[in-house]
Amino acid sequence: METSPDSASAPTGDAGCVVLMLGYPGMGKRTVGAEVARQLGGVLVDNALINRPVLELFQWDGIEPLPAGVWDYVAPIRATVMRAIEDLAPATESFVFTNVLDDGPQGAARYEAIRALATRRGSPFLAVMLTCDIDIQVSRIDTPIAWRCGREPTRRDIAGTR
């Protein structure tokens, strides 16, 4: 796990913090993020929470291709969540975001939007890159049921799919 604190987002008073858990699918972002949020007394803003309203319409299993342009419908949901945090959440509240690693311009824009949110809230910002052994990663993403349920697969899911 690699971390990258943003010195421009130094804490101010009792401000909550903003953490961004990044990694490829199956790295455990939601699992680790939930524990970090629990320890901070904060809120987990899992990427699946934002994507689910649109992806559920297509009963996406994480394998079949999605219709072209589907992410254009997810973007306003993400923007609404970010605005609600900025406009309504107490400055003392901490938030732990998860997101799939994307090295392209869209990934950079999402990263910057979360970092900028932390700055506007006066919150420290910490980006965390999760990694794991490839065999573990494959076992974690080789279960479409986990994608459908919006959660990490359990050992029972894995045993039931083989």
Could you give a quick summary of the protein structure above?
It comes from Labedella gwakjiensis. With 162 residues, the protein is α/β, with parallel strands linked by helices. It has a single domain (2-134), classed as Rossmann fold, CATH 3.40.50.300.
Within CATH, the superfamily carries the name P-loop containing nucleotide triphosphate hydrolases
Low-confidence stretches: 7-12, 151-162
What is the CATH C level class, in words? Alpha Beta
Give the class from helix and strand content and strand pairing.
Answer: alpha/beta
Q: Average the pLDDT over all residues and give the rounded result.
A: 82
Round the Cα radius of gyration to an integer and report it.
Answer: 16 Å
* Terminal residue distance: 29 Å
CATH topology: Rossmann fold
The geometry reads as globular
Percent strand equals 15-25%
Number of strands: 5
Order of helices and strands: EEHEHHEHEHHH
* Domains, number: 1
Tally of DSSP helical segments: 7
Query: Main sheet?
Result: 5 strands, mixed
Helix content: 40-55%
Widest sheet, order of strands: 1-5-2-4-3
Q: Any guess at the CATH architecture?
A: 3-Layer(aba) Sandwich
